[in-house]
Specification:
With 335 residues, the protein is an alpha/beta fold. The chain is 43% helix and 15% strand. The chain contains eleven helices and 13 strands. A seven-stranded parallel sheet has the order 3-2-1-4-5-6-11, with helices on both faces. Helix 1 crosses helix 8, helix 5 runs parallel beside helix 6 and helix 7 crosses helix 11. The radius of gyration is 19 Å and the shape is globular. It starts with 7 loop residues before the first strand and ends with a helix.
Length: 335
Amino acid sequence: MSFWKDKHVFVTGATGLVGSWLIKRLLKEEAYVVVLVRDWDPQSELIRSQEIKKTSVVHGRLEDGVSIKRALVQHEIDTVIHLGAQTIVGAALKDPLETFESNIRGSYLLLEACRECQERVQRIVVASSDKAYGTSSILPYTENMPLRGLHPYDVSKSCTDLLSLSYFHTFRLPIVVGRCGNIFGGGDLNWSRIVPGTIQSFLHGEAPLIRSDGTLTRDYLFVEDAVDAYLKMAEKAEEKGVKGEAFNFGPNRPYSVLEIVAMIQKLMNVFHLQPKILGTARAEIAHQFLSSEKAKKLLGWESAFSIEDGLNQTIEWYKKFFSHRAMQEKIFSCC
């Protein structure tokens, strides 16, 4: 029998990239899934795939603590997976207040609701990021390194981590924090990100735009590997040595932006379209690289998808997505 069968799971950030794929897995495992939805985006994979019809929907914002608590109580939630956040570095620079409200205030209001429902909530997984570490001359990042975010998005993730671990140490909430590298996969509609933006450009016969100078290095983690990471943390969240801990998740091999573009270019066979380097990116950490040894040892987690496998699946998803969109536009124009 699946661990998740009949578990009552509350997912924030449900219509995002990771949320959409995570919920597919939870539904397959026969969990009872409750999702928090702020904006109804019909292009979201969760809505587009119709999987949302198999869930219970709570309309609201992370910053509304009353609605969050009501959802936990009414649906008798035993598991919380907190993915909700403003996730774009550029957006955080343009509107830091909104990022702080969503990522910091939204997180502590959710954690406070969990504390008030502590007799029921048995496991809490909080999604963080490698950005929480900030800039370091020592790489790869390990979980015992300090959290030193400097810019708005990075600071918001550092604070989320610290708040989460505070609620564990002070109130003994069964919290586990996951710090992932750059997650990619079908369903990411944030075109400013390098993977979806590059695929979109190539499919439209355009040269991709690179905001940085192309030398920034990151871990790139396929979304199904990320889903597996979050589920493994939740399944072991009550165990000693896991609860109250943070775990890194990455493929243990960083790639530069130009390397990622070149791989997509090769997989899509579009060598006649060369990227345009803008060099306009601000407040970006130059090099990031996570060690996942702790996750391997304590959770039994390892990346199951190579970068090429993940990119191939992602490319195929976007081909179908744009083909379907073109067909809809054609039908609409004919009417």
